[in-house]
Amino acid sequence: MNMKTMDPKPPIAKKIPKELKIHNDVRIDNYYWLRNRDNEEVIAYLNAENEYTKSVMKHTETFQTALFEEMRGRIKEDDTTVPYKLNGYWYITRYEVGKDYPIFSRKKDTLDAQEEILFDCNDMAKDQVYFNLGGISISPDNTMAAFSTDLVSRRQYTIQIKNLKTGEIYPDKIENTTGNATWANDNKTLFYARKDELTLRSHKIFKHVLHSNEEDLEVYHEQDETFNTFVYKTKSRKYIVIGSSSTLTSEYRFLDANTPNKSFKVFQERIRELDYSISHYGDHFFIIANCDGATNFKLLKTNERLTQKENWQEVIPYRENVLIEDIEIFKNYIVINERENGLNRLRIMSWNGIEDYYIPFKSETYTLYIGNNPDFDSDLLRYGFNSLTSPSAIIDYNLNTKQSEVKKEQEVLGGSFKKENYTSERIWATARDGVKIPISLVYRKGIKRDGKNPLLQYAYGSYGSTIDPSFSSIRLSLLDRGFIYAISHVRGGEYLGRNWYENGKLLHKKNTFFDFIDCSTHLIEQKYTSKEHLYAYGGSAGGLLIGAVINSNPELYHGVLAAVPFVDVVTTMLDDTIPLTTGEYDEWGNPNDEAYYHYMKSYSPYDNIEAKSYPNLLVTTGFHDSQVQYWEPAKWVAKLRALKRDNNKLLFNIDMDSGHGGASGRFESLKEVALEYAFLLDLEGINN
Question: Helices 670-683 and 61-73: crossing angle, nearest 10°?
């Protein structure tokens, strides 16, 4: 029962006007002061927002606890991943009942061998408010593991090395890295990427020699501030590769893994908007590239001694309607992951030229991906398959016999879930420019299209990131209470190919917002829901989408969830000291260019708040967020509170201990989901 003796008062942030001027245009930012994370007044304001949210949602606390237990109750606590084999060992990740963190282990030769614990993250996380184990890299002789930890949630990892024979952790400590380390074949040389302390851009590759007193040697410095750099070893184990990439352009260097003290050789020097990736097989490299107008990419190959673009030979030509996403190379086969009409498919080709076919899949909408296949010599392809109604399955496909074996299907505990009780479909909305926008839907069978159903509409729509229609046991807590869940595959992602992305970025960015709004209108017109029952949800760059949408058409939505939202676009993109900003220019444009500045300003959620009514709104963030700084949503909420002309809820929940990915621990993040779901369900008058 919703009973409150007295409405709590929302915190009001003070205004300290700051003039921001560029291109003869002046913006006044009254909440710029909230950027100072060391200011006690800032901390006090954030804590007050948390207290206000807690107070407003107090009547749902029992319900939140029930939702948390319900969602947690569907997840198998004593769970184990499907083992994979690499270099003579089977590697396993498992969870134990009552423990939040994974245990990493391995067994030699067979799965019946004695278990060897590599890392028990429950022990490692003891006494830590936040804990994340980054990459684990096993030395070629299997005796050591390079591993990394983040104790703050800023994605700045410390790499250490563990002796797997003795259990000793060596004194070597490498700070401020991306978390991944790559061994040379000498079992003593490690390559890793280090981050810029201020911007958090991964900008340098170093070489670390175990037990050496020498300072780590810088082997590569990425000078272009719009690029990030990284390092890895090819699956064939022959080469160490340094990659440099921006949104549109890439470049690689390679070095024989047996000669780590030699110099890296450039594979193909960067050319603006030449985006390519490389894989090694035999005496050739295989290249996925968008060269010569191949917007959706094509597959090429070249001799490992002649890697420049003029030597690349076509293997699979460019096809206008087929996007090549990635490849997996085995000793006898190459597997190509393609996407056509929004759906993935796996093409199998044998090196001897005899086999060339697709694994058959029959479903209207599903999620398909290549799984973990580190063993070059294997004839088993591991892939994952699920849909909005079918739990995740891990499948081994025998490339020789063409037989499939389901190694594991996600268990949904609690006894109430039956996949036949739910239905999914894909419908198409017509955008204002005539383009058809796909929408994936899932709901319990028996729902009537009478406009009375609550519907949660989700989208992302940036960086070419595709949101596939995948299964979620957590989402059942909404579906079982009558909600429809919809994913709008808006432009800005790559659901319908690379052009789908190109038409949703830079000076076409507003297509992303228009698509979402037009999908909302379509869902209402088709009576899946109505304005009184439609809810919108987006996070990070998807939070930008949500912010722009409710500035434009707030009347379409009863409530909105905005998670770690990127909403102060202009100010952030003008500040190249903020982590990750310069690498975003190819996505949003550089506002130092006047044309991009004015276009960006015309949709930036923070800059376009007006004195009008807005939907009920719950905003979440993490104080240590390295991707979207906490002050963006803080400023947005403060300005909304000052200008909005309604009595709808505006709540701001800040996790003072976490970053962009939320709380660490297996179940802790479910508490935030329980808050979000309780917020939505409470607006629908549902409290159990």
Answer: 120
Nearest to 70 by CA among 387, 389, 413, 411: 413
Would residue 387 show up in a list of annotated catalytic residues for this protein?
no
Residue 110 lies in a domain: no
The CATH number that applies at residue 557 is 3.40.50.1820
Strands 228-233 and 84-86, bridge-based pairing: unpaired
Q: How many domains does the chain have?
A: 2
Tens of pLDDT along 297-340? 999 999 999 999 999 999 999 999 999 999 999 999 999 999 99
Question: Known catalytic residue: 540?
Answer: yes
Q: What is the spatial distance between Cα 580 and Cα 603, in angstroms, rounded to a whole number? A: 21
Say if residue 405 is in the same domain as residue 549: no
Domain housing 639:
40-73+415-565+575-587+612-683
Cα(322)–Cα(342) distance, integer angstroms: 9
- Ranges 471-475, 626-630, 656-660: which has the least confidence: 656-660
Task: Check 625, 626, 655, 664 and give the catalytic one.
Answer: 625
Catalytically annotated residue among 139, 477, 540, 658: 540
Catalytic residue, from 148, 604, 660, 664: name it. Answer: 660
Q: Does this model's pTM top 0.85?
A: yes
Which residue bears the tokens 């609550």? 454
Q: What is the distance between the alpha carbons of residues 172 and 254, in angstroms, rounded to a whole number?
A: 26
Of the candidates 286, 282, 365, the residue with the CA atom closest to the CA atom of residue 326: 286
How buried is residue 675: exposed, middle or buried, by Cβ count under 10 Å (0-12/13-18/19+)?
buried
Whether 343 and 463 map to the same domain: the answer is no
